[in-house]
Design goal:
Low-confidence stretches: 1-7, 590-594
Strand content: 5-15%
Shape: rod-shaped
Oligomer: single chain
Number of strands: 11
Helix content: 55-70%
Distance between the termini: 165 Å
Structural class: alpha/beta
Largest sheet: 9 strands, mixed
Order of helices and strands: EEHEHEEEHEHEHHEHEEHHHHHHHHHHH
Length: 619
């Protein structure tokens, strides 16, 4: 078996401290506190060195509790298994309660009073109670009932006798190293002894005391006790794996015990008619520990259960309200949302809290006015979170509507202002229709998240402002058209004066010499405004020069003509002289008969010659 130095998976749950004060340790209690499902406790008790921890490990099929070969008790107080086991792992029905195993320290080491303080709270919450006894020679009713006296005293701690009936769970007595018949052993332990058969008064008193223990056990436990006889192992040290034990029937007996436990553990442990959950047990243990501080405790389980139930209901309510608040905070980050979508999310939060709270309430107050009252209180608290979220969403939706309204107005203003004026009425209306389609067409998509009333108000505000812009644009277009027509009808006097002054300045800037130079260079002075004023003078001078030049040319031509005429005259005179001289020579020369026709021909030839010369001169 494992040594005491080895670390096991059990957690310390209950411990007796100074002045015999019972303390509940959070390390183990938190394992139960977080479990909202039903939980059954299996506790083992008995004298020192009876193998209680080993038996629990065998039932669990894992080394949960530490075991030792020391003579002293290895377990101090109560150890709780660190893992809650599903009952179907033990062979029980599916979806049954979960199971926790508790190992109680050996009895007899600290006295009956100390044992009672630590055992009573555990007995009240346990579904299965397992008493371990070593009986190599068979059971002794006196010895075993002496051990059972602790259970009877625990029952006597309950103030009201009526509350003791069926208070504890199912009792199992395991007789270790016992080879006797189980039916016979049960008869020895639990059958009633007739005091008439007592041999002495002392014997009769012992029988009476044992019968009182038997009667108290019968009243206190919910089922008839079961006795198991475990065969003695052949080896001195028990194997870690019980299935490898070198003893026929040992492993089968443990399996039988486990199967019987599984059937009983498939039903929840009831306390005051209410099934115990892990969280209820965790809340109940400090109350029981506080009640056991007294040297003569008078426990009232119904009152304890009611108080714990109220505490657990309040804790469950606070937990669910806090969870609903966290869910609302998560939803807050998604705001704003459409009203229907937000309502759907809030309804989901409310329904989730109500259903879970109702499932927890079934354990404490099944269908009574108290359950209705606390359910109403839960709904009001969750509704407060939802209402604050709705108010915040409404504020954000109003802000969103204002933003949409402002954005759409600004968009419409920019688009309308972008239309240049003036325009013909038909063209203006066409452009305004395009703007209207773009602004109002996309407006419905922007308003989908808003409520119907808010969307209607926002749309009305956008449309009203937009139509005002259209009317202003139409009016501005008419004004611009009239203004343009007025400008076309008559010019303003100021621009005309400025134009006249500029023209006059340009007109007066030039001089005659500049204009004449442009004209002389072959340019066009009329293209230069500086010359316009001097054009008449320049043309006059030009005409005057042309006239003088023409007169000079005419004079020269006349002189040339006169010179040519004089030259021609001289030539004619010379020719006439030559002709006359020729004629005289003919008259005073030899005595030649002159034919009158010859003289006439000579005269004609001379005249033709003179005409030819004159013709060439004038050419």
């Amino acid at each position: 078996m494992s040594s005491p130095e080895e670390v096991n998976s059990a957690r310390k749950w209950l411990l007796l401290q100074k002045e015999s004060q019972l303390c509940v340790l959070d390390e183990a209690n938190d394992i139960l506190k977080s479990e909202q499902r039903q939980v059954n406790i299996v506790m083992v008790c008995g004298r020192l060195r009876t193998g209680k921890s080993y038996l629990m490990n065998c039932l669990l099929r894992e080394p949960c509790f530490g075991v030792s070969s020391q003579a002293r008790s290895f377990t101090k107080g109560v150890d709780l298994s660190a893992r809650l086991v599903d009952v179907d792992e033990l062979g029980g029905k599916k979806s049954g309660p979960r199971v926790a195993f508790a190992d109680l320290e050996g009895q007899g080491d600290k006295g009956l009073e100390q044992d009672l303080k630590i055992a009573t709270p555990l007995l009240i919450v346990s579904k299965v109670v397992l008493l371990m006894e070593v009986c190599p020679g068979g059971p002794s009713s006196e010895s075993i009932l002496e051990s059972l006296q602790l259970l009877m005293m625990a029952g006597n701690c309950i103030a009201e006798r009526k509350d003791r009936r069926g208070l504890f769970g199912c009792l199992h007595i395991v007789l270790r190293d016992c080879a006797h018949d189980e039916v016979e052993c049960r008869s020895i332990i639990f059958d009633h002894e007739d005091e008439v058969n007592a041999e002495t008064d002392q014997h009769a008193k012992a029988m009476q005391k044992r019968n009182e223990i038997r009667k108290s056990i019968e009243i206190s436990f919910e089922a008839a006790p079961k006795v198991w006889c475990m065969p003695k192992l052949a080896e001195d040290v028990a194997p870690d794996d019980y299935t490898k034990a070198n003893k026929e029937g040992f492993a089968d007996k443990i399996d039988d015990i486990r199967n019987t436990f599984a059937q009983q553990l498939s039903e929840p442990k009831l306390l005051n008619g209410r099934p115990l959950t892990g969280s209820v047990i965790a809340a109940l243990m400090p109350e029981l520990a506080e009640a056991m501080r007294s040297n003569e405790p008078a426990l009232n389980p119904p009152s304890l259960v009611d108080r714990v139930a109220a505490m657990e209901v309040q804790r469950a309510m606070d937990e669910l309200v806090e969870r609903a608040g966290k869910e609302a905070d998560v939803l807050l980050g998604k705001l704003p949302l459409h009203g229907d979508q937000l309502q759907k999310e809030l309804t989901t939060i409310q329904n989730r809290a109500s259903l879970e709270f109702a499932s927890r309430l079934k354990v404490f107050w099944p269908a009574d006015s108290t359950a209705e009252a606390v359910t109403g209180e839960l709904n009001r608290k969750v509704e407060a979170h939802c209402q604050s979220l709705q108010i915040k969403n409404s504020e954000l939706l109003v802000q969103l509507a204002e933003k949409i309204l402002q954005d759409e107005r600004t968009k419409a203003e920019k688009m309308v202002q972008a239309i240049c004026l003036p325009l013909a009425s038909r063209d203006l209306e066409a452009k305004l229709d395009l703007v209207k389609e773009e602004v109002l067409g996309a407006l419905d998509d922007s308003l989908q998240m808003l409520t119907t009333e808010l969307a209607e108000l926002t749309k009305r505000g956008v449309c009203g402002h937009f139509f005002d812009l259209l009317e202003e644009k139409r009016s501005a277009n008419l004004i611009e058209i009239r203004r343009r027509r007025s400008r076309l009808a008559k010019f303003s006097i100021v621009p005309l004066l400025i134009l006249a002054a500029a023209s006059l300045a340009i007109f007066m800037a030039g001089d005659v010499a500049e204009c004449a130079q442009i004209l002389a260079s072959g340019g066009h002075p009329w293209l230069n405004p500086r010359c316009w004023r001097h054009l008449p003078e320049v043309h006059r001078q030009k005409d005057q020069k042309e006239q003088e030049s023409a007169a000079e040319e005419a004079r020269r031509a006349e002189e040339e003509a006169e010179a040519k005429a004089e030259q021609l005259l001289l030539e004619e005179q010379k020719e006439e002289e030559e002709i006359r001289m020729a004629r005289m020579a003919q008259l005073h020369g030899a005595e030649i008969d002159i034919d009158p026709t010859t003289g006439i021909g000579v005269t004609i030839a001379g005249a033709l010659a003179i005409i030819w010369r004159r013709h060439n001169f004038f050419r």
